[in-house]
TrEMBL record:
It comes from Solimonas terrae. Keywords: 4Fe-4S, Chaperone, Cytoplasm, Heme, Iron, Iron-sulfur, Metal-binding, S-adenosyl-L-methionine. It is found in: Cytoplasm. Its main location: cytoplasm. Belongs to the anaerobic coproporphyrinogen-III oxidase family. HemW subfamily. The keyword Iron applies. The lineage of its organism: Bacteria, Pseudomonadati, Pseudomonadota, Gammaproteobacteria, Nevskiales. This is Heme chaperone HemW. Probably acts as a heme chaperone, transferring heme to an unknown acceptor. Binds one molecule of heme per monomer, possibly covalently. Binds 1 [4Fe-4S] cluster. The cluster is coordinated with 3 cysteines and an exchangeable S-adenosyl-L-methionine.
Length: 385
């Protein structure tokens, strides 16, 4: 492969901030989240985040502005608007913000408070992501959620009243013993709220979760596919374009932060268990922080907080890039592959094989998965391992 270097200034920069606590752990969740026991150390955790950010920025002064910030968890809305404002003010003093920066905060309907929502807007949060998961109270109970259907609508109304004009709803399908009619009713209820964005994704059973150990009865593959197809039709009919495997948006409203992940952009990962990816000095590196909040609080701001810090080998870069970019319906520009990996697409022999098998197409400098490639995405990706 050609001896090149990634072009850093052509790669967007984002920031991910992880807030690890929840009121309780959901049985399907494999994210780094921890049930809150006792009082949350809000001030101490914010202090730790800022020490961690300062440590991350010691390696190289960032000349690129932040294009997006995402505060995920866990349940970031457990933190007060004052704490979120303190974090964003501190980040603003350390890094330049793009004029149209997208700043997202995840919220749980069961922890929603109108005063906090208004405070988040005042602090600079301009996008809210609400973890709905279902609008069926029986399903919500099975999923271990602490909210009910009415609280979803109440939280949504509070968010609009507070001034949020960009809202995402997370909704799952193929839930335990869910019928096609029940899944359709869930989606129609979410669509009636008219959010700008919907993350609509299938429940999967992950190892090291309660559902992974004691799996519930889920719809079979045929029914799950029927639910997905019906959902995609409903979303399209209501003006939501699918731009990624499980992401649907109104025109101009794709999630900029997530697009940065899928397009192999750079992002700083700050917080307990946070992952980051950064391009510098001709290399691409991944870092991950300590997962447990206690260890993170103790070591944040030092190298001891790093659980992983490694350079991605050049022969791993094609897969690293494509496992994200091929999730996008529009695929990627060949120029972006060359710029962000420092490699040459034309010399990638696996690409020729994928074309011959009808899994990808190349046209006008763009590569995208075919319908066959999207349906067999894992098989497509294995060609590049």
């Amino acid at each position: 492969m050609a001896d090149r270097r990634p072009v850093v200034n052509a790669i967007d920069l984002a920031l991910y901030l992880h807030f690890p606590w929840c009121v309780q752990k959901c049985p399907y969740c494999d994210f780094n989240s921890h049930a809150l026991r006792g009082e949350m150390p809000e001030e101490a955790y914010v202090d730790a985040l800022l020490r961690d950010l300062d440590f991350e920025l010691r390696d190289a002064a960032e000349g690129r502005p932040l294009r997006s910030i995402f505060m995920g968890g866990g349940t970031p809305s457990l933190f007060s608007d004052r704490a979120i404002g303190r974090v964003l003010d501190a980040v603003r003093r350390r890094l330049a913000f793009a004029p149209d920066i997208e700043i997202t905060l995840e919220a749980n309907p069961g922890t929603a408070e109108a005063a906090h929502f208004a405070g988040y807007v005042a602090a600079g949060v301009n996008r809210l992501s609400i973890g709905v998961q279902s609008l069926d109270n029986a399903q919500l109970k099975k999923l271990g959620r602490i909210h009910d259907r009415d609280e979803v609508f109440h939280a949504y109304d509070m968010a609009r009243t507070a001034g949020f004009t960009n809202i995402n709803l997370d909704l799952m399908f193929a839930l335990p013993q869910q019928t096609l009619a029940e899944a359709e009713a869930d989606l129609r209820g979410a669509l009636a709220l008219a959010p700008e964005h919907l993350s609509y994704y299938q429940l999967t059973l992950e190892p090291n979760t309660e559902f992974g150990v004691r799996p519930p009865v889920l719809p079979d593959d045929e029914l799950a596919w029927d639910i997905q197809e019906r959902g995609q039709s409903l979303l399209a009919a209501n003006g939501y374009a699918q731009y990624e495997v499980s992401a649907y948006a109104r025109p101009g409203r794709p999630a900029r932060h997530n697009l940065n992940y899928w397009q192999f952009g750079d992002y700083l990962g700050i917080g307990a268990g946070a992952h980051g990816k950064r391009t510098a000095d001709g290399t691409v590196r991944r870092r991950a922080r300590s997962k447990h909040p206690r260890a993170y609080l103790e070591h944040a701001g030092t190298a001891k907080a790093l659980q992983e810090d490694r350079e991605i080998a050049r022969n791993e870069l094609p897969f690293e890039f494509l496992m994200n970019a091929l999730r996008l319906n529009t695929g990627f520009a060949i120029r972006d592959y060359n710029v962000r990996t420092g490699l040459d697409w034309s010399q990638l022999t696996a690409a020729k094989l994928a074309r011959e098998r009808g899994l990808i197409v190349e046209q006008d400098g763009q590569v995208r998965p075919t319908g066959l490639g999207h349906r067999h995405l894992n098989g497509l990706l294995t060609l590049f391992l």
